Automatic annotation (TrEMBL):
<keyword id="KW-0100">Branched-chain amino acid biosynthesis</keyword>
<dbReference type="GO" id="GO:0009097">
    <property type="term" value="P:isoleucine biosynthetic process"/>
</dbReference>
<dbReference type="InterPro" id="IPR005786">
    <property type="entry name" value="B_amino_transII"/>
</dbReference>
<dbReference type="GO" id="GO:0009099">
    <property type="term" value="P:L-valine biosynthetic process"/>
</dbReference>
<keyword id="KW-0028">Amino-acid biosynthesis</keyword>
<keyword id="KW-0032">Aminotransferase</keyword>
<feature type="modified residue" description="N6-(pyridoxal phosphate)lysine">
    <location>
        <position position="175"/>
    </location>
</feature>
<dbReference type="GO" id="GO:0052656">
    <property type="term" value="F:L-isoleucine-2-oxoglutarate transaminase activity"/>
</dbReference>
<dbReference type="GO" id="GO:0052655">
    <property type="term" value="F:L-valine-2-oxoglutarate transaminase activity"/>
</dbReference>
<dbReference type="GO" id="GO:0009098">
    <property type="term" value="P:L-leucine biosynthetic process"/>
</dbReference>
<dbReference type="InterPro" id="IPR036038">
    <property type="entry name" value="Aminotransferase-like"/>
</dbReference>
<comment type="pathway">
    <text>Amino-acid biosynthesis; L-valine biosynthesis; L-valine from pyruvate: step 4/4.</text>
</comment>
<comment type="pathway">
    <text>Amino-acid biosynthesis; L-leucine biosynthesis; L-leucine from 3-methyl-2-oxobutanoate: step 4/4.</text>
</comment>
<protein>
    <recommendedName>
        <fullName>Branched-chain-amino-acid aminotransferase</fullName>
        <ecNumber>2.6.1.42</ecNumber>
    </recommendedName>
</protein>
<dbReference type="InterPro" id="IPR001544">
    <property type="entry name" value="Aminotrans_IV"/>
</dbReference>
<dbReference type="Pfam" id="PF01063">
    <property type="entry name" value="Aminotran_4"/>
</dbReference>
<comment type="function">
    <text>Acts on leucine, isoleucine and valine.</text>
</comment>
Length: 332
């Protein structure tokens, strides 16, 4: 099985922004774009992206999950990066059109079609270090993916990092390439020095998120996760899981949580900790590493509540449970 996200459909949807307006979108060969080496994105990182999925149901129909949320977030990222303003309806149509083009290729569950809308600054202008790009390109790339957990789910080791940050605080809500590059150095170092899988960034003891996923603590009937502020990425999976957990009668506490409280709660045998994101839905955390010491979370294994919540979300995505919140958009 190819690595997640390494296989692409041969065509994508494309629109360009020039002379202050968006072109009509078209479906083009995915490897057909040209970029000037002086393009704004290549020097000043004027780039943002989204990750969402289309699912195949048992009757053969194909549905995109919470597209409105991802399109809204892409428009927000574009705005915060001073990229040209998006037309959300046009972006939604590009997504639906390209998924429709490849409806036959959408894998059956637990696989799906991963959708990667991307917006980049294309103006050839290396003098614009402190000015926005005048032109841009928006494309929607597709990548069929299998089960994220082939080989079984294993609980992760997370380094609690209290000094470094994932990205500059005003960039937290932007799903932008540079944020990932900025987190890579610390993550590699944590992998080498303490065999951590990921870093949970907790500047000054404030538990935020990892390099590419949100963090939730499950303590019995309560889920505790940081309330929405501008320092971290507001995950669609996070919001969906909180909605489903509330429906299941759980208490949702969206508030700040400190490293001290996290370690204290992690010592309880029934506690679970999870990372949330579109690719894997929920991934369990088995160990926190803090100041050179390992702290087992609950019993150190993937827990039953994470499993139940992941199943509840998958059941809606896969058409096995009622879509009460209208999260699915039917493509074909
Ligand atoms: C994409 C992302 C998430 C998860 O968002 P989802 O919408 O749930 O996929 C969380 N944190 C960061 C930094 C991300 O890039």
């Amino acid at each position: 099985m190819a690595a997640f996200g390494s296989v692409f459909m041969p065509k994508m949807a494309l629109a360009t922004f020039e002379n202050n307006q968006w072109s009509e979108a078209s479906i083009v060969a995915a490897d057909s774009i040209q970029l000037h080496p002086g393009a704004h994105v290549l020097h000043y990182s004027s780039t943002c992206f989204e990750g969402l999925k289309a699912f195949r149901h048992e009757d053969g129909s194909v549905h995109v999950f919470r597209m409105d949320q991802n399109v809204k977030r892409l428009a927000q990222s574009s705005r915060l990066l001073s990229l040209p303003e998006l037309d959300e309806a046009a972006v939604s149509k590009m997504i639906l059109d390209v998924v429709a083009e490849y409806a036959e290729d959408v894998p059956t569950p637990p696989g799906s079609m991963y959708i990667r809308p991307t917006h980049i600054g294309t103006e050839a202008a290396i003098g614009k270090a402190a000015a926005p790009t005048a032109t841009s390109m928006l494309y929607v790339l597709l990548s069929p993916v299998g089960d994220y957990f082939t080989g079984g789910a294993k609980a992760l080791r997370l380094l609690l990092e209290e000094t470094g940050m994932r990205c500059a605080p005003h960039m937290g809500m932007v799903k932008s390439g540079a944020n990932y590059a900025s987190a890579l150095g610390p993550i590699f170092q944590a992998q080498e020095s303490v065999q951590a899988d990921q870093i949970l960034f907790c500047p000054n003891g404030d538990v935020q998120e990892t390099g590419a996923a949100n963090f939730l603590l499950i303590d019995g009937n309560e889920i505790i996760t940081k309330g929405l502020d501008t320092c971290f990425l507001h995950g669609v999976t996070r919001s969906s899981i909180l909605t489903l957990a509330k429906d299941l009668g759980m208490t949702i506490s969206e508030r700040d949580i400190t490293v001290d409280e996290l370690l204290e709660r992690a010592a309880k045998p029934e506690v679970e900790a999870v990372l949330s994101g579109t690719a894997a839905v929920l991934t369990s955390v088995g160990t926190f590493i803090h100041n050179g010491k390992d702290y087992t979370v609950g019993n150190g294994e993937p827990g039953p509540i994470a499993q139940k919540l992941r199943q509840a979300l998958n059941d809606i995505q896969w058409g096995k449970a009622e879509d009460k919140n209208n999260w699915l958009t039917k493509v074909v």
